[in-house]
Design goal:
Length: 181
């Protein structure tokens, strides 16, 4: 199969979406997804500066058995003077896989086949929340006992921050469960 510019453009648009990241997330977190196409129904990502983070509050997806096989072009179609254009070949393979998955899932849905639906929930938290790197002078003052240091603003917040440990963000899976169709 020869990849047209239009198909490549569509794939590249898709590849930069939360849905595409959610597919990778499901592959990583749900062992049962092996041998299945992943149809993302809903996803809620955590906001991050790193687009490669696979951290989601929620992903709901359907798993469909792979019935169609992608028809990949031979590598020699991407070889010039004995050197493989790896980027072009990789993009073609990924776009072909994506197109095959969408075709296969669509055909199965048309035939009334329902995939197994799964829900994966994750949580991201600051492991250092409320911890200090050095003991603040006011820590033993009873007046500060019930103060939520994270709700402070302005000068008070700036003062307290010099004692707080830097954030150590952790992500973990809270639950994975199969939903009834």
């Amino acid at each position: 199969m020869l990849l047209t510019e239009e198909k490549l453009k569509k794939y590249l648009e898709y590849a930069s979406t939360d849905e595409a990241r959610a597919v990778l997330f499901v592959k990583k977190q749900l062992k049962k997804s092996a041998g299945h196409w992943i149809d993302v129904i809903d996803c809620v990502p955590y906001q991050s500066d790193n687009v490669n983070d696979l951290e989601f509050k929620l992903v709901v997806c359907g798993l469909y058995k792979r019935r169609l096989k992608p028809d990949y072009p031979p590598k020699n179609n991407f070889t010039i003077n004995g050197k493989l254009n790896e980027r072009e070949y990789y993009l073609t393979v990924r776009a072909t896989t994506w197109e095959t998955a969408h075709t296969d899932i669509s055909q199965q849905k048309t035939k009334g086949i329902k995939g197994e639906i799964f829900e994966i929930k994750g949580i991201k938290y600051n492991k250092n929340r409320g911890k200090f790197i050095k003991k603040p002078p006011w820590i033993d003052n009873p007046a500060w006992k019930d103060v939520d240091i994270h709700s402070l603003r302005g000068a008070d917040r700036s003062y307290v921050q010099q004692f707080l440990a830097p954030p150590d963000w952790q992500y973990e899976i809270k639950s994975i469960r199969k939903l009834l169709n």
